[in-house]
Design a protein that fits this description.
This protein has 67 residues and is mainly alpha-helical. 84% of the residues lie in helices and 0% in strands. It has one domain. The radius of gyration is 17 Å and the shape is elongated. The relative contact order is 0.13.
Length: 67
């Protein structure tokens, strides 16, 4: 599971970096730039969800140790 989370994080970061290069900053809300922004937002959401999963697993592990 740890490798899977790391792999998904790397893919999301890679998508963010790639799509930042695809954005036309002269016309950011036209054509392919909109798709790039949507993909960047989606990848950021994926990173946030993965971080929530990591934190919840740490909390679960600590609660099992205290019992």
């Amino acid at each position: 599971m740890k490798i899977f989370k790391l792999l998904l994080s790397l893919i999301a970061i890679g998508l963010i970096i790639y799509n930042l290069t695809q954005v036309d900053f002269n016309a950011p809300f036209e054509g392919d730039s909109v798709v790039a922004f949507i993909t960047i937002l989606t990848a950021m959401c994926a990173l946030a969800l993965l971080q929530i999963l990591r934190i919840s697993q740490k909390i679960e592990k600590q609660s099992k140790i205290k019992k």
